[in-house]
Each structure stands twice: as C-alpha cells, then as structure tokens.
Amino acid sequence: MAGVTEASRVDDETLISLVRSLTVESNRFVDIFSAAHTLHPTDMTALAVIAEAARTGTPMTPGALARTLDLSASATTSVLDRLEQAGHLSRDRSDTDRRKVELRMLPRARALAAEFFLPLARELAKAWEPLSERDRQVVANFLGETIAATARARTASTGRKSRRA
User: Fold this and answer.
1) DSSP 8-class letter at 10
2) For 14-57, what is each residue's pLDDT tens digit?
3) Whole-angstrom Cα distance, residue 164 to residue 75?
4) How far apart are CA 165 and CA 148, in angstroms?
5) Contact criterion met (CB below 8 Å) for 101 and 94
6) Of 40, 38, 68, which Cα lies nearest the Cα of 52?
7) Which of 24, 56, 67, 94 fits 100 for a cystine, CB–CB 3.0-4.6 Å?
8) Element (H, E) at 94
C-alpha cells in the first residue's frame, strides 16, 4: 500500500493523510478532464451527482441537485445552462409527472467520461485485484463511514443555511 508499510502503525493521522492525498490526486485527475472540456469544478461535481443518481435509478431534478450541491436556484440554473450548452445533459419532463423536470446525461457526455476515466478504472482494478472479499468489505465500510463522517462535518460547519451564489 502506497504510503504505509506493513510494520507502520495506522493511526487516525495516517488515515486522514491518506484520504487527503487521495482527494488531492482525484481532484488533479478530474481537473485534467475539466480543463479539456472547459468545465467548472461545480459542473464536474454536478455531472458526477447526476451520473450517480442515474446509476441508482433515481431521477435527479434541478431542486435535488441544488440541495445536494448547496447551491441557490440561480446558481443551479447557471450550472445546468452551461452543461446543457456544452452538450452534456438535457432537462426533460418526467414520464410519470409532467410537472417535474429530470436531468439526464447525454450519450456524448457518457462516452467522453468513459473514454477519459477508463484508464483510472483499470488502474484501480489492478490495485484492488489482490484484495480478498473480506478486505474489500472492510475498504467499502471504511469509505462509506468516511464519506458519512465528512458529510456530517460539512453539515455541521455550514449549518445548512448557507447557499452558494
């Protein structure tokens, strides 16, 4: 494992450092895609949230996106306008409730993302290949709990009252 040897004590500081390093490397990788496609970091985050909602079969609406990203209605509209103009998403009426608007990534955006992120997926699969099923469960639990803890700290620090303009 990069950064930790078998004999190392893996304390909280070490875990925090590794999570921080992963975040930095992930951001640097995503920045390459953002720059190549003239996307703002918030646009990339919005696309990731919309893609995850689609993966889980949950329609994403502009209001849900605004709440997830803690954006004002006008800021959300700006993000969606940029993504729509760039050909990355569409805003469509819901099949079940015509009053609702659902956000959908367009096939072109999916293809661009798949092409760019495939090498990362291959490298991650290679890194995880030696892990046993039990190890994978430990990692999944660790990541899930780390994400939840980060979300709780974010919520506590913002008080959920702030909205980015």
Assistant:
1) -
2) 999 999 999 999 999 999 988 888 889 899 999 999 999 988 98
3) 7
4) 25
5) yes
6) 68
7) 94
8) none
In the chain, what is the straight-line distance between the N-terminal and C-terminal CA atoms, in Å? Answer: 41
Which stretch of DSSP H or E encloses residue 67? Answer: helix 62-69
Q: Are residues 72 and 66 in contact, defined by beta-carbon separation less than 8 angstroms? A: yes
Residue 45: C-alpha distances to residues 3, 9, 53, 130 (Å): 28, 34, 12, 31
The span from the CA of 132 to the CA of 90, in Å, is: 41
pLDDT tens for residues 50-104? 999 988 988 899 999 999 998 999 999 999 999 999 999 999 998 888 889 999 9
Separation of alpha carbons 44 and 51, rounded Å: 10
- In the block, tokens 């760039």 appear at 86
User: Angle, nearest 10°, between helix axes 12-36 and 107-128?
Assistant: 150
The pTM (predicted TM-score) of the whole model is 0.77
Specify the 3-state DSSP secondary structure of 53.
Answer: helix
Beta-bridged to residue 109, according to DSSP, are none
Residue 93 is classified by DSSP as E
Burial tier of 38 (Cβ tally within 10 Å: 0-12, 13-18, 19+) = exposed
